[in-house]
Write a structure and sequence with these properties.
By secondary structure, the chain is of the alpha+beta class. Helix content is about 50%, strand content about 10%. The protein has 22 helices and ten strands. Strand 7 (about 395-405) and strand 8 form a beta hairpin. Helix 2 (about 45-60) crosses helix 6, helix 9 (about 175-185) crosses helix 14 (about 285-295) and helix 16 runs antiparallel to helix 17. The longest helix is centred in the C-terminal third of the chain and has 22 residues, at about 350-375. It is globular, with a radius of gyration of 26 Å.
């Protein structure tokens, strides 16, 4: 870590208005370890949304079973080029250079939570991505889908580099931008965005950041020019201030600022104009309604694992809230007692229905814990069943229990505290498909068990829909050994 005493904060010339506030802004700028990082991807436009939808459709239909490696990237590049969706400019390039355009496209999809990809695993188009594919011919609906993803994009998240991620307390940049616009007369300049909004690490920073902007606006054009040059000399935190080639914070931000703005200003009630260098709110009433809905009961959940992040971010039914936060804490609690502590600590933030739901999750974790820790109990589901892992994270959700049967097959166990409904079948089949595609010895080597309090006639018929002669063995129903009240 650099020595703070070596930080040289540029001075504010005497006679400048709001000199003390601007001095604070310069110091925070010098000491800030992070900014609103986005990768250098395609800028987000209506035309690019159509390209995104078509590209995702090709990946889902033709590459969903392919392991993500350079050969797959090369094949995808050729397919997208043939479809007119990518236009490589490099001839006779190496494979690494040739496929860079595909990786840039992948980065945009990941940033927006539309596609999960890990090296040597199969791509997963998220629920949000599938919705975008379905809306490919409906520009208005497609735009709404992307706008929803933009509003959920938060810092920190596991996709951004750790050196920028670790200092964020929890912020939704789009909502912070709306808040700043409302406070600052529905318009801010690109300079104000780059210099000051990129300092924000939480929503509690809004008043301080807007004070900086007000002080900046009190300067004359020549004074702003002088101060802008002084901001530009400040190295990024961690760089050696004595090294003239050290990365400058202003330069790092400027390299991604246009991509930031194309994302965070994408919803139709905002616009960013490169000619006037200004970001505006074009519908103050709509922005105010969205702000009240988005920030009123907001709680940012810190997702540590990429799989957890995509399971949340890629699911349009999930939103930032206290319920999301508590549910995540319960799902990842070490044991039932720790889950109880989380629920009790935040009970006041939950509605009656939400409290009932997180309590159900706690019960399911307790049932899961019991079967994982007691081999004799596990063997009541199936003789010789061997426990392998629990809470296995995937980008489509968390597998409760993963075991091995005496036949050598993986056994995915989905736990439900109460009667199994129709939704559980899609859930466990997705998990079985994940093992089938991504475990080295998982191909055609996985089956499932639904563990619930009871099964309706509809549940029995759902299994018939598998249309397999061995459906009763491929997907078993088992009643768990607990009454809900006992857990």
């Amino acid at each position: 870590m650099p020595n703070r005493r070596r930080l040289r904060i540029p001075s504010i010339p005497r006679g400048y208005p709001n000199r003390a506030v601007l001095r604070d802004a310069l110091r925070e700028y010098a000491e800030c370890r992070t900014f609103w990082y986005v990768p250098k991807v395609r800028t987000l436009t209506d035309q690019n949304i159509s390209v995104c939808a078509q590209t995702l459709a090709i990946i889902d239909a033709e590459f969903s079973a392919a392991l993500w490696d350079r050969d797959t990237q090369d094949a995808l590049l050729a397919r997208l080029t043939a479809a007119g969706l990518l236009k490589p400019r490099t001839r006779n390039a190496t494979q690494a250079d040739r496929t860079a355009l595909v990786r840039i496209t992948k980065d945009l999809f990941e940033t927006l939570g539309l596609l999960w990809i890990a090296q040597n695993q199969t791509p997963v188009v998220t629920s949000a991505g599938l919705r975008l594919i379905d809306a490919a011919d409906d520009r208005s609906t497609a735009r709404d889908i992307i706008a929803q993803q933009v509003s959920k994009l938060q810092y920190p998240n596991p996709v951004m580099p750790n050196k920028y991620r670790s200092s964020f307390i929890g912020i939704l940049p789009h909502f912070f931008l709306l808040d700043a616009l409302e406070r600052m007369g529905d318009a801010i300049t690109f300079d104000e965005y780059n210099l000051f909004l990129n300092l924000a690490a939480s929503h509690a920073d809004a008043e301080r950041i807007c004070n900086y902007i007000e002080a900046w606006r009190s300067l004359s054009e020549s004074q702003q020019h002088t101060l802008r040059e002084r901001f530009a000399t400040i190295p990024m935190w961690g760089a050696n201030p004595d090294n003239p080639k050290a990365s400058k914070r202003a330069l790092l931000i400027s390299r991604t600022a246009s991509y930031q703005r194309s994302i965070f200003c994408f919803p139709q009630y905002t616009e960013h104009d490169t000619d006037s260098q200004t970001i505006r709110c074009t519908d103050a009433a709509a922005a105010r309604e969205i702000l009240e809905a988005g920030l009123g009961e907001n709680k940012i959940t810190a997702f540590e694992q990429r799989e957890d992040w995509f399971a949340y971010f890629g699911d349009p039914s999930q939103e930032p809230s206290w319920f999301t936060y508590v549910a995540h804490q319960v799902m990842n609690a070490e044991n039932s007692s720790a889950a109880t502590e989380e629920i009790e600590a935040h009970a006041a933030e939950l509605s009656t229905q939400q409290h009932r739901e997180v309590r159900r999750l706690q019960i399911e974790r307790a049932i899961e814990e019991s079967y994982a820790s007691q081999p004799d109990l596990l063997h009541t589901l199936e003789p010789s069943l061997q426990f392998e892992n629990r809470q296995v994270k995937t980008p489509i959700g968390q597998i409760d229990l993963l075991c091995r049967g005496s036949d050598g097959k993986y056994v995915v166990i989905e736990v439900k505290a109460r009667p199994a409904d129709d939704a559980v079948f899609g859930q466990i089949l997705r998990y079985m498909g994940w093992i089938h595609r991504n475990y080295e010895d998982g191909a055609d080597n996985v089956r499932g068990i639904i563990l619930a309090s009871e099964f309706s006639d509809k549940a029995q018929y759902s299994r018939t829909g598998l249309m397999r002669d061995d459906a009763n063995e491929h997907l078993k129903f088992r009643r768990h050994a607990f009454a809900v009240e006992e857990v």
